[in-house]
Design brief:
alpha+beta, 6-stranded antiparallel sheet, 6-stranded parallel sheet, 13 helices, 48 strands, 16% helix
Length: 819
């Protein structure tokens, strides 16, 4: 790999032509070190050519960068034999590039998702020192979130042009590896691998052969034992060779929580007539079947939305995934692995890779394969606020067809990839009806490409799909037979209204919805400059820039009686609303199963450190409380309740409908109302708990739910905080509680030792934000009644042992760090 020795500089116009010729001296001014793979903006940040775009308003000062060309260069020396060729392979350059050797153009390419090659043999055959230069040209025109989809003429990540969770940070750079390869008369250019549940492995070897040879395929099992092999000969001039073999009794690959993920290594070699190895590629795959089947009770005109893997229906306990960094070519050690582990540990079965982001990387898919995370991958198309109908001209359709047919074979070996879709929220702007193959030519083009190039995968014509777009009360009422796949809302609807909307849902799939919340403490302190912390609303220019769409300060203040007057209280109140609101929305979808086949909240992660965002895990990789609410809901066994509101002023009775799943027939489900001193106000083992509110002492009470097996062992529990007032302000007046914190090897124990119930106990990583790695908690956001104790696992992931501390916060406990 050519991953070192690169340097970079800016060029106006065609200045780069003067800087990439032979004999350029080392150490010229205006050059600085560059990483490959990498990102121009990240290189500029590291060299202090720009201020950190991830702090305050600084990204505004970087918007000039993509308007220029950026010249990468490095020395290159290649020794090639007489019968060999020297080839440069670029796995990905964003977005347009010219490649030169000593000033001579050897390749020009456009398109960030498609690899390309350059034959440089004639320029380097002398074995001397040469200069390799790559010009990354100015970024192409693009549309921000509020724009027009019909003006988009490229297949490039849309997010960086300015989105609700990412300011304008348009990516440029050599964002994937560059390789130098020497090839003889028989070259293995690439391989495509597919596998099915019957044990069939299909390999297509892509060749450049001026002489005859053979392709050998060997399949190695999970324990590295050889489980199958085959050889196919080819003639000179052959461009592809197909090999098919059967692995007897293969171990099936299963989604997260449904079984193991055995992976098989497929080694593909080319050999010449002297039986010498001339090329080798390896792919890892798994054996499984997948299809979409109809939802029970669905309207006759509905698409099938339920995933069936290896003959078993798999509920989509999902989350929407966006690029883990706005500068997606930059190296962020360990973060991708950490985030995907968090998703797997939250019992997620499916990630929807949002269509405004990336065709995800090989590293992403390798991890999903190992973790059992199913992937719904969308091409990089998205709505644009003003108009959401993609272009229809022949050139654009041809571009998307070429891109799809180049991308699809590359990912075929990954068992985690189960669904392809064209993009995000493509719809008729006037009617809000989602587009499909019949109403959008580009969706039709992509559907045909998937059917022909990756026929073993599922296809959905978009997210959402069906006759209606929005999960909204008036739209639900207009479709009495039920909605199909819907999106929204993305905001907490307010006390009472939020519960009413989600309880009225009728969708077969809810593939995007969310609740907004404020950033975690240490992210906030790192990205919001001193002096800009208050006010927290959009009247603060920094807040307007760092996530204005999701800044719900007015709702937070209203929901807490207008009383929060400092950043910490606003944060706690905002995150409480996000926690309660998102888990209630997810639980509402799960309660409609199996007619509803999946809930996919917006959004799991964020690519930029916002002050406010719908993300459940912040840019640093620290979960917000909402993460733990959804994580509990996605457990195999779960007990939950539906109710009209959390603030009961003006009502005579408290009523809750209780539902549990994942247990056995003899399970006992108990619902109790608890006063904050621990007194049991009422209890029921039936599906409904109904209590006069006059029986509740004080202004705060807790709905406590338990699901136990017949022998008394606890399967799941859940708690919801309620008030008898018109808002949640009583949380601000809660009397103090005392909680002991004990950090054990591999766990944290919280013990209530005095006072009333300790509510909203949240654990987080207390180290400086620049500290390496993460504190990973098995659970957080606890409501402890007097005398109770809870122990949660704690893992330090990629974190040095020195300086490990955790922070405990809550509504009525003294915040403190514990080592």
């Amino acid at each position: 790999m050519l991953d070192d020795g690169w340097e970079l500089r800016a060029c106006l116009g065609d200045t780069w032509r003067w800087l990439c010729g032979p004999g350029r001296p080392d150490g010229e001014p205006d050059w600085f070190p560059a990483r490959v793979p990498g990102s121009v903006l990240d290189d500029l940040r590291r060299s202090r050519q720009i201020t950190d775009p991830y702090v305050g308003l600084n990204s505004l000062r970087s918007e000039w960068v993509p308007q220029r060309s950026w010249l990468y260069r490095r020395p290159l020396r290649v020794d090639v034999d007489a019968d060999e060729r020297a080839l440069l392979r670029f796995e990905g350059v964003d977005h347009e590039a010219t490649v030169l050797i000593d000033g001579h153009e050897v390749a020009h390419h456009t398109g960030m998702f498609v690899p390309f090659e350059a034959d440089i043999t004639d320029h380097v055959a002398d074995g001397a020192r040469h200069l390799l230069a790559v010009v990354v040209h100015p970024a192409p025109p693009g549309e921000p979130q509020v724009g027009r989809t019909d003006r988009v003429r490229t297949h490039k990540s849309r997010m960086g042009y300015g989105w609700d969770f990412c300011p304008r940070l348009i990516h440029q750079g050599i964002w994937k590896p560059v390789r130098l390869e020497k090839a003889g008369p028989v070259r293995l250019r690439d391989v495509t691998v597919g596998a099915d549940a019957a044990g069939t492995v299909r390999v297509r070897a892509h060749l450049e052969a001026t002489a005859p040879g053979a392709v050998d395929v060997t399949v190695h099992g999970p324990e590295e034992q050889a489980v199958g092999s085959a050889r196919v000969s080819f003639r000179a001039g052959c461009e592809t060779a197909d090999v098919e073999l059967i692995v007897p009794e293969p171990l099936l690959w299963w989604p997260n929580g449904h079984g193991e993920q055995p992976l098989y290594r497929v080694a593909v070699e080319t050999r010449d007539t002297a039986d010498r190895t001339t090329g080798r590629h390896e792919r890892t795959t798994g054996f499984r079947s997948v299809r979409l089947v109809p939802n029970p009770g669905a309207p006759a005109d509905a698409l099938p939305y339920t995933l069936e893997v290896n003959g078993r229906r798999i509920p989509a306990k999902g989350w929407n995934w966006v690029p883990h960094d706005a500068l997606y070519g930059a190296d962020r050690p360990g973060r991708l692995h950490h985030l995907l582990r968090l998703a797997a540990e939250a019992h997620v079965t499916l990630l929807r890779v949002w269509g405004g982001g990336l065709i995800e990387t090989e590293a992403f898919y390798e991890l999903c394969d190992r973790l059992g995370l199913l992937v719904w991958q969308e091409f990089s198309l998205s709505s644009s606020g003003i108009d959401s109908v993609p272009a229809t001209d022949d050139a654009y359709l041809a571009l998307m067809d070429r891109e799809a047919r180049a991308i699809l074979p590359v990912l075929r070996h990954h068992p985690s990839l189960v669904v392809w879709g064209p993009g995000n929220e493509l719809h008729d702007t006037a009617t809000a009806r989602p587009l499909d193959e019949k109403t959008s030519p580009v969706i039709g083009v992509l559907a045909r490409a998937v059917a022909e190039a990756d026929p073993e995968r599922c296809w959905l014509p978009g997210s959402p799909s069906g006759p209606s777009f929005l999960h909204r009360a008036d739209v639900i009422a207009a479709h009495p037979a039920g909605q199909h796949d819907v999106h929204g809302p993305w905001e907490h609807q307010g006390l009472g209204a939020h519960h009413a909307l989600y309880d009225s849902g009728t969708s077969l799939l809810h593939s995007e919805f969310g609740v907004e919340g404020m950033a975690n403490r240490r992210t906030w302190n790192a990205v919001v400059p001193d002096g800009a912390h208050w006010p927290t609303g959009r009247d603060n220019p920094v807040m307007e820039h760092l996530g204005a769409w999701w800044n719900n300060t007015p709702l937070v203040l209203s929901a807490f009686g207008g009383r929060p007057t400092d950043v910490d209280t606003v944060r706690r109140a905002s995150q409480q609303l996000q926690y309660d609101g998102l888990r209630y929305a997810v639980e509402a979808g799960l309660r409609r199963a199996p007619r509803n086949s999946g809930t996919i909240p917006w959004q799991f992660n964020e690519p930029f450190p916002n002050a406010w965002c719908t993300a459940s895990v912040d840019y640093r990789g620290d979960p917000k409380p909402a993460y733990y609410g959804v994580r509990r809901a996605y457990r195999r066994a779960h007990v939950c309740a539906s109710f009209a509101t959390q603030a009961w002023a003006g009502r005579d009775r408290f009523e809750a409908d209780v539902r549990a799943w994942g247990g056995s027939r003899g399970d006992v489900v108990t619902a109790r109302l608890l006063a904050v001193d621990g007194t049991v106000i009422a209890a029921s083992t039936g599906p409904v708990l109904s209590v006069p509110l006059s029986a509740v002492p004080g202004e705060l009470f807790v709905l406590d739910l338990e699901q136990r097996c017949a022998a008394g062992e606890l399967r799941s529990s859940n708690r919801y905080v309620h008030t008898t007032t018109a808002d949640l302000a009583p949380l601000l007046d809660l009397a103090p509680a005392e909680v002991d914190v004990t950090v054990l090897p591999g766990a944290v124990r919280l013990t209530h030792t005095g006072g009333v119930a300790a509510l909203g106990l949240c654990l987080s990583d207390a180290r400086p934000i620049e500290a390496g790695g993460w504190a990973v908690f098995g659970d957080s956001m606890f409501d402890l009644m007097p005398g109770e104790s809870v122990e949660t696992p704690l893992t330090w992931r990629n974190a040095p042992e020195r300086g490990r501390t955790v922070l405990l916060e809550g509504w009525n406990v003294h915040a403190r760090e514990c080592g």
